[in-house]
Amino acid sequence: MSLLRLRNLSVEFATTGGRFRAVDKVDLDVDRGDVLAIVGESGSGKSVSMLALMGLLPWTAKVTADEMTFDGHDLSKLSARGRRRIVGKDMAMIFQEPMSSLNPCFTVGFQIRETLRIHLGMDRKAAQKRAVELFDLVGIPDPEQRLKAFPHQMSGGMNQRVMIAMAISCNPKLLIADEPTTALDVTIQAQILDLLVKLRDETGMGLVLITHDMGVVAETAQRVSVHYAGQKVEEQPVRPLFRAPHHPYTSALLAALPERATDKRLPTIPGVVPGQFDRPKGCLFSPRCKFADDHCRKVPPEPRGADLGLARCHYPLNTDERLAS
Amino acid sequence: MLRYVLSRFATFVPTFIGVTLISFAFIRVLPGDPIIVMAGERGMTQERYDELVKQFGFDRPIFVQFWDYLTGVLQGDLGNSYVTKKPVWDEFFALFPATLELSICAMIFAVALGLPAGVIAAMNRGKFFDRTLMSTALVGYSMPIFWWALLLIIVFSGNLGWTPVSGRIDLLYYFDNVTGFMLIDSLLSGQDGAFGSAVRHLILPTIVLGTIPLAVIARQTRSAMLEVLGEDYIRTARAKGLPPGRINGLHALRNALIPVITVIGLSVGTLLAGAILTETIFSWPGIGKWMVDSIFRRDYPVVQGGLLLIAVMVMIVNLTVDLLYGLINPKIRKR
């Protein structure tokens, strides 16, 4: 059985303009040692689905799922207290903005020891020792001194390392990284990604990487799940996805990579992700899809088989690849 | 740090000059003549009047009078009261403990109730408790103090007879003035029931004086908490699996305290100076009542000196608050 199993996960927000469905019937599986990348534009529900899993959404959100199991626990049936025993210990998360994700009023040492003391019941001394080890592990030089620092005294990259150290402090089985490198500059980005992959190799935890950077995906992930307007539109292992995307959206995303450009101008996908009030009746991508016909605009497509990358499309691309194999 | 404290002290100088000038000018702008007030209903002869004018120096140009006053102040001499003939300095420090005692109690009352109320309201945003509390706070804030005081006196002193109407302690008790704080002195005296009496006398004035700061602190805490609760680091705290009590009471409150401390500091300043109504209503022998009495008697040195000393107290409180920021907000501390 897989470590994380989500079936038909939906998240709706109660807004003044009615209900808004940010995540629409998403299925996901993550195993130990897996690196799953979730990609998609802003507003495609990547972060929201993972925040729902962690139980971090505001009270205006309504989370429903046919199945939401993690490591044998049914998350939808757990009490708030029971969930807190898992969240932060077996299932941890790091965020996009390391500078604002740490509390400015406490030293980073306090913040990391706090996790150790609450989840593992360590005393002050043991927690301090483990914190030093963790800082060493994530590559923070001079750990004893750095533990006494406040977040505003360190750089963004260092703060993200602190966040990672805090997240892996209790040896989690699953680490969710929500755009961990977006706020950092390019050289630091590579270091942080290397660190995450190294930690995955050493601890065997599952890693979910939310990103909109296809370059990051190609370098780090094993499997890719492409999301669009709250739906999962395709899921494939990395190599086949880059070689033969089945959904037109994935194909268009890949075509927009600078490395793949053949023309002087980068190809783009016209239009924007549909919002609350302009949701199409049929396929959600149909208004922007160059292959869409009347059938697409009327009937919402269901996911195809695994051989077609579970693509939510009436006319999947690269079908001959399947015939060839 | 020392440099910061010194530079803050430097800003005292213009404030100090301003307060001296204004207090000197204002009391003289008021119609009325201290000599006539002193004479009372019997009146006095023109010769005696002229003699007194000369004695107080009112015949000299106003600038000379101000200069005399200023040089006196700089030498630590605030002059003597026209009425009691005692030095203003001595009178102030005889009465100030009463005001300080009342202000401290009112502030403890306001903070002890206001902070938790604001936090709980923020945690229950939009729910019944939040709405009730915030509308109550608005009522408390808008309540005229004298009316609120009379209302409490009628109910608790008049109808129920639980608390005394005025004063600091029952006439039954008499003991020496050691610290000037009735709560401490009554304990030191060792007389049976003296402390209880002092406490009972404090209750109503404390509530009346603390009502407005309580309302302000509760509202400020609530809005600061609401802002902080939306921050990324609160999401991190929740992602760490911390219990809600720890998230709200430690991670959020510590950050929310920064603006709340400002409000508390400002309130302490107004309490020291603004206990006038409360002290008058409850016949509380503090500086508020003393100031009002001396304004009616046109007791120039007392009004001038009293205002100046109150201003200095307020400035010291504000300085303390500024230094407190550093303790709470590490971003300020390390600079």
UniProtKB/TrEMBL annotation, chain A:
Q: Which GO terms describe its biological process?
A: peptide transport; transmembrane transport
Question: What InterPro entries does the annotation carry?
Answer: AAA+_ATPase, ABC_Ni/Peptide_Import, ABC_transporter-like_ATP-bd, Oligopep_ABC_C, P-loop_NTPase
Matches recorded under SUPFAM superfamilies? P-loop containing nucleoside triphosphate hydrolases
PROSITE patterns the record matches: ABC_TRANSPORTER_2
Does the keyword Transport belong to this entry?
yes
Report which superkingdom the organism of origin falls in: Bacteria
A GO cellular-component term linked to this record: plasma membrane
Q: Where is the ABC transporter domain?
A: 4-254
Mind telling me which Pfam families this protein's record contains? Answer: ABC_tran, oligo_HPY
Recorded protein name is: Dipeptide transport system ATP-binding protein
Keywords in UniProt for this one? ATP-binding, Cell membrane, Membrane, Nucleotide-binding, Transport
Q: Which GO terms describe its molecular function?
A: ATP binding; ATP hydrolysis activity
Q: Entry's Gene3D superfamilies?
A: P-loop containing nucleotide triphosphate hydrolases (3.40.50.300)
Report the locations given in the UniProt record: Cell inner membrane
User: What family name appears in the similarity comment?
Assistant: Belongs to the ABC transporter superfamily.
How does this protein lie in the membrane?
Peripheral membrane protein
List the source organism: Limimaricola pyoseonensis
Query: Which SMART domains does this chain map to?
Result: AAA
Automatic annotation (TrEMBL), chain B:
Q: Which Gene3D superfamilies is this protein grouped with? A: MetI-like
* UniProt KW Cell membrane keyword: yes
Q: Which domain of life is it from?
A: Bacteria
Task: Give TM segment ranges.
Answer: 12-30, 92-121, 133-156, 198-218, 256-282, 302-328
A Gene Ontology molecular function term of the record: dipeptide transmembrane transporter activity
Tell me the InterPro entries matching this sequence: BPD_transp_1_N, MetI-like, MetI-like_sf
Annotated GO CC locations? plasma membrane
Which compartments is it annotated to reside in? Cell membrane
- Tagged with keyword Repeat: no
Q: Which UniProt keywords apply?
A: Cell membrane, Membrane, Transmembrane, Transmembrane helix, Transport
Q: What is its main location?
A: membrane
Give every ABC transmembrane type-1 domain span.
96-325
Q: How does it sit in the membrane?
A: Multi-pass membrane protein
Q: Which PROSITE patterns match?
A: ABC_TM1 (PS50928)
Similarity-based family: Belongs to the binding-protein-dependent transport system permease family.
Instruction: Give the PANTHER family listed for this entry.
Output: DIPEPTIDE TRANSPORT SYSTEM PERMEASE PROTEIN DPPB-RELATED
Designated name of the protein:
Dipeptide transport system permease protein
